[in-house]
Amino acid sequence: MGVATAQQTIGPYWHLLEDSSWADLTRFGAIGTVIVLQGRVLDGEAAAVNDACVELWQADPPASESFPAFGRGGTDADGRFRFRTLRPGALRGRGNIAEAPHLALAIHARGLTRPLFTRVYFAGEALNEIDPLLGRIDDPERRASLIAAPAGAGVWEIDIRLRGAQETVFLEF
Q1: pLDDT attached to residue 13
Q2: pLDDT in tens, 70-128
Q3: Closest by alpha carbon to 143, among 108, 111, 100?
Protein backbone atom coordinates (compact mmCIF):
# COMPACT_ATOMS: atom_id res chain seq x y z
CA MET A 1 0.00 0.00 0.00
CA GLY A 2 1.28 3.45 -0.96
CA VAL A 3 1.63 6.54 1.14
CA ALA A 4 -1.46 8.78 1.34
CA THR A 5 -1.26 12.05 -0.55
CA ALA A 6 -1.52 15.45 1.09
CA GLN A 7 -5.25 15.46 0.42
CA GLN A 8 -6.43 11.89 -0.08
CA THR A 9 -9.86 13.01 -1.27
CA ILE A 10 -8.38 14.11 -4.60
CA GLY A 11 -5.61 11.57 -4.55
CA PRO A 12 -2.63 11.86 -6.86
CA TYR A 13 -3.96 15.00 -8.55
CA TRP A 14 -3.07 17.41 -5.73
CA HIS A 15 0.07 18.37 -7.65
CA LEU A 16 -2.09 20.02 -10.34
CA LEU A 17 -2.64 22.90 -7.93
CA GLU A 18 0.99 23.88 -8.45
CA ASP A 19 0.26 24.58 -12.13
CA SER A 20 -1.70 27.85 -12.12
CA SER A 21 -2.65 27.43 -15.79
CA TRP A 22 -5.37 24.98 -14.68
CA ALA A 23 -7.27 27.97 -13.27
CA ASP A 24 -7.32 29.67 -16.69
CA LEU A 25 -10.05 28.03 -18.74
CA THR A 26 -9.23 30.37 -21.66
CA ARG A 27 -5.62 29.16 -21.97
CA PHE A 28 -6.27 27.24 -25.21
CA GLY A 29 -7.61 30.28 -27.08
CA ALA A 30 -11.28 30.19 -26.07
CA ILE A 31 -13.39 32.90 -27.69
CA GLY A 32 -16.13 34.69 -25.79
CA THR A 33 -16.66 37.18 -22.99
CA VAL A 34 -13.80 36.60 -20.56
CA ILE A 35 -14.51 37.00 -16.85
CA VAL A 36 -12.54 36.47 -13.67
CA LEU A 37 -14.12 34.73 -10.70
CA GLN A 38 -12.27 35.31 -7.48
CA GLY A 39 -12.96 34.95 -3.80
CA ARG A 40 -11.94 33.33 -0.56
CA VAL A 41 -12.58 30.03 1.16
CA LEU A 42 -13.27 30.63 4.84
CA ASP A 43 -13.88 28.29 7.78
CA GLY A 44 -16.57 28.60 10.47
CA GLU A 45 -14.59 31.28 12.32
CA ALA A 46 -14.12 33.31 9.09
CA ALA A 47 -10.43 32.33 9.02
CA ALA A 48 -8.79 31.71 5.66
CA VAL A 49 -8.56 28.11 4.47
CA ASN A 50 -5.11 28.31 2.91
CA ASP A 51 -4.86 24.77 1.58
CA ALA A 52 -8.17 24.19 -0.21
CA CYS A 53 -8.64 23.02 -3.77
CA VAL A 54 -11.41 24.74 -5.72
CA GLU A 55 -12.73 23.13 -8.90
CA LEU A 56 -14.91 24.98 -11.41
CA TRP A 57 -17.19 23.46 -14.04
CA GLN A 58 -19.56 25.08 -16.46
CA ALA A 59 -22.07 23.71 -18.95
CA ASP A 60 -22.13 26.87 -21.05
CA PRO A 61 -20.24 27.49 -23.18
CA PRO A 62 -19.84 23.76 -23.79
CA ALA A 63 -16.43 22.12 -23.59
CA SER A 64 -14.39 22.17 -26.78
CA GLU A 65 -10.78 21.92 -27.93
CA SER A 66 -10.28 25.59 -27.04
CA PHE A 67 -12.37 25.59 -23.86
CA PRO A 68 -12.14 22.74 -21.30
CA ALA A 69 -15.13 24.01 -19.22
CA PHE A 70 -13.24 22.72 -16.14
CA GLY A 71 -10.57 24.29 -13.99
CA ARG A 72 -8.82 23.66 -10.71
CA GLY A 73 -6.88 25.92 -8.41
CA GLY A 74 -5.61 26.14 -4.87
CA THR A 75 -6.15 28.81 -2.28
CA ASP A 76 -3.29 31.04 -1.20
CA ALA A 77 -2.20 32.03 2.33
CA ASP A 78 -5.25 34.33 2.58
CA GLY A 79 -7.67 31.65 1.35
CA ARG A 80 -8.03 33.38 -2.04
CA PHE A 81 -8.74 31.62 -5.32
CA ARG A 82 -8.97 33.00 -8.86
CA PHE A 83 -10.29 31.64 -12.16
CA ARG A 84 -10.27 33.10 -15.65
CA THR A 85 -13.11 31.73 -17.75
CA LEU A 86 -15.86 32.62 -20.20
CA ARG A 87 -19.09 34.20 -19.02
CA PRO A 88 -21.74 31.45 -18.96
CA GLY A 89 -25.09 31.85 -20.64
CA ALA A 90 -28.54 30.69 -19.61
CA LEU A 91 -29.26 26.98 -19.69
CA ARG A 92 -32.30 24.79 -20.05
CA GLY A 93 -32.73 22.41 -17.13
CA ARG A 94 -35.18 19.62 -16.38
CA GLY A 95 -38.48 20.10 -18.12
CA ASN A 96 -36.83 22.70 -20.39
CA ILE A 97 -37.02 25.26 -17.57
CA ALA A 98 -34.67 28.24 -17.87
CA GLU A 99 -31.73 28.32 -15.47
CA ALA A 100 -29.82 31.52 -14.79
CA PRO A 101 -26.19 31.63 -15.92
CA HIS A 102 -24.06 29.98 -13.28
CA LEU A 103 -20.83 28.16 -12.52
CA ALA A 104 -20.49 24.99 -10.45
CA LEU A 105 -17.82 24.73 -7.77
CA ALA A 106 -16.46 21.82 -5.76
CA ILE A 107 -14.41 22.54 -2.64
CA HIS A 108 -11.86 20.04 -1.33
CA ALA A 109 -10.27 20.94 1.99
CA ARG A 110 -8.74 19.48 5.12
CA GLY A 111 -11.30 17.77 7.28
CA LEU A 112 -13.65 17.06 4.39
CA THR A 113 -14.01 13.42 3.42
CA ARG A 114 -15.76 14.40 0.21
CA PRO A 115 -16.03 17.66 -1.72
CA LEU A 116 -18.67 20.30 -1.04
CA PHE A 117 -20.62 21.34 -4.13
CA THR A 118 -22.17 24.74 -4.74
CA ARG A 119 -23.09 27.14 -7.52
CA VAL A 120 -22.13 30.71 -8.31
CA TYR A 121 -24.72 33.02 -9.88
CA PHE A 122 -24.18 36.63 -10.97
CA ALA A 123 -25.67 39.70 -9.27
CA GLY A 124 -28.08 41.63 -11.45
CA GLU A 125 -28.91 38.68 -13.72
CA ALA A 126 -32.65 38.84 -14.55
CA LEU A 127 -32.98 35.05 -14.75
CA ASN A 128 -31.93 34.73 -11.09
CA GLU A 129 -35.55 35.56 -10.22
CA ILE A 130 -36.90 32.46 -11.96
CA ASP A 131 -33.98 30.05 -11.54
CA PRO A 132 -35.36 26.79 -10.08
CA LEU A 133 -32.52 26.25 -7.60
CA LEU A 134 -32.43 29.83 -6.34
CA GLY A 135 -36.22 29.74 -6.09
CA ARG A 136 -36.02 26.90 -3.56
CA ILE A 137 -33.99 29.01 -1.12
CA ASP A 138 -36.45 31.08 0.92
CA ASP A 139 -33.97 32.81 3.23
CA PRO A 140 -32.56 35.87 1.39
CA GLU A 141 -29.24 35.66 3.28
CA ARG A 142 -28.75 32.01 2.34
CA ARG A 143 -29.67 32.75 -1.27
CA ALA A 144 -27.15 35.63 -1.31
CA SER A 145 -24.39 33.14 -0.44
CA LEU A 146 -24.60 31.93 -4.06
CA ILE A 147 -24.48 35.35 -5.74
CA ALA A 148 -21.16 36.78 -6.93
CA ALA A 149 -20.81 40.55 -6.79
CA PRO A 150 -19.14 42.66 -9.47
CA ALA A 151 -15.65 43.73 -8.40
CA GLY A 152 -14.45 45.59 -11.49
CA ALA A 153 -14.70 45.24 -15.25
CA GLY A 154 -15.34 41.55 -15.93
CA VAL A 155 -14.39 40.57 -12.37
CA TRP A 156 -16.80 38.77 -10.02
CA GLU A 157 -16.19 38.01 -6.37
CA ILE A 158 -17.68 35.50 -3.96
CA ASP A 159 -16.62 34.04 -0.63
CA ILE A 160 -17.21 30.39 0.18
CA ARG A 161 -17.92 29.89 3.88
CA LEU A 162 -17.59 26.25 4.92
CA ARG A 163 -19.50 26.57 8.21
CA GLY A 164 -21.07 29.05 10.57
CA ALA A 165 -23.81 31.64 10.50
CA GLN A 166 -23.07 32.74 6.92
CA GLU A 167 -22.38 29.26 5.55
CA THR A 168 -22.60 28.95 1.79
CA VAL A 169 -25.48 26.87 0.45
CA PHE A 170 -24.07 23.47 -0.53
CA LEU A 171 -25.80 20.93 -2.75
CA GLU A 172 -26.26 17.20 -2.25
CA PHE A 173 -26.02 14.72 -5.09
Answers
A1: 52
A2: 999 999 999 999 999 999 999 987 888 899 999 999 999 888 888 999 999 999 999 99
A3: 100
Is 83 in contact with 104 (CB distance < 8 Å)? no
Q: How many CA atoms lie within 13 Å of 154's alpha carbon, on the beta-carbon side?
A: 10
Angstrom distance (rounded) from CA 36 to CA 85? 6
- 102-108 β-sheet, strand order: 70-74, 53-57, 102-108, 116-122, 147-150, 155-161, 34-42, 80-86
67 φ/ψ angles, rounded to the nearest 5 degrees: -145, 105
d(CA 155, CA 84): 9
3-29 confidence digits (pLDDT tens): 544 444 455 555 556 788 999 999 999
User: The domain 8-161 is classified under which CATH number: 2.40.37.10, 3.10.180.10, 2.60.130.10, 3.40.50.300?
Assistant: 2.60.130.10
User: Strand (E) positions, the chain?
Assistant: 34-42, 53-57, 70-74, 80-86, 91-92, 98-99, 102-108, 116-122, 147-150, 155-161
pTM, two decimal places: 0.89
